[in-house]
Amino acid sequence: MLTSLLVSLVLSLGRAGEGEEMVLGQTTDYHTSLIALSGHDFYGLQIAVRRHRPCQVRAFFHDAPPRAAQYCFGRVTQRHVTEAGSGILDAGERVNGVAACFTAADRVGAVRLYTFSGEAVTARVGNCVTEFRTVWCERGWTVQGLQLYFDRPAGGLSHASLVGMRPLCVDSA
């Protein structure tokens, strides 16, 4: 409930997520948001793959526990986590841009996080057939989380795939 309220607040107050130009990939009816609570900075993500489908995303926030979106059928085991693509920034870095490229199956193949200083980290989970497309927050704004789009609902008898995302930007002043 609190997460839904925060996402609604971010989407309505800021220009975060306005328009389709902020979406990397495609939007679907099967979405969730991983957003910082209480102003903790977003600094990394990890994408786990089951049967060639990127179906779990964990977002990392400074001084807060990670948050996860689980769209895999069954448990994600330690082996899946070990093989996951991870992009983790150094302490104190803030994300102001997100890029993604896509596989031949229109699934997320890699996600890249950019900082104000131009540093970048990449979480790679597949072979991209597209170029990276980047979405930047407005000047002075930072990414405080991601809205994630999957190709089917969680909890079915097969794994869903991450097919799109939208950075949730907030004024960092």
Automatic annotation (TrEMBL):
<protein>
    <submittedName>
        <fullName>Uncharacterized protein</fullName>
    </submittedName>
</protein>
